[in-house]
């Protein structure tokens, strides 16, 4: 195969054209190593070596560009290279080179991810562990990195998260608020022992007026929603709905008695 044209591209890359109308993008190092100047000929063995090295160089440059925007895990880079058409052998070689250059490291990634989440998010350790697993990081690395999320840090973050949750659900019954805060902390990945400590520390007291307002708001929604039902059935629906929301039986009955008096047409 004879080189018929050499065209310089950006970032020290060259496009080589051969007499069989094949094109190949190569680095400057390969240009020098294979003496890719116009008129020079390559035998089949040299061509195969050049093609293999050019593919490796291209994959390495693509991977470097991919990880230049943010930290990536080994799995993420492998998926990226696979999407670009590189086989497993090529992926392995490129990943090894990136590891040698210390620009890809799952342990470093896990620690950086945890520091960021502890500082900027409300995720608990279990949720963080799940996210890292999804990114292909093995359990041993994750467990070592989780030392950054000690019990005190988890408790402090869980308390902040619980306070935020409480503000969002202030219109619920006292019992339902506590249930939702507990459930919210569980869903965010906090340990049960930490949640119990936080719930004790949070100490949300029931406010009589706030509880009454919440009951009336929830009660009116259900009362109006079931307006077409027979009166007895309507009262039953309201009782069931409000009780399931954590309101006290005597408060529910008081609300229903009031509505029975007010709703004179149905009485």
From TrEMBL:
Organism ancestry: Bacteria, Bacillati, Bacillota, Bacilli, Lactobacillales
Pfam families: RecX_HTH1, RecX_HTH2, RecX_HTH3
Function according to Swiss-Prot or TrEMBL: Modulates RecA activity.
Domain RecX second three-helical per the UniProt entry, residue ranges: 105-146
Domain spans labelled RecX first three-helical: 61-98
UniProt entry keywords in alphabetical sequence: Cytoplasm
Domain RecX third three-helical per the UniProt entry, residue ranges: 154-199, 215-256
Name the record gives this protein: Regulatory protein RecX
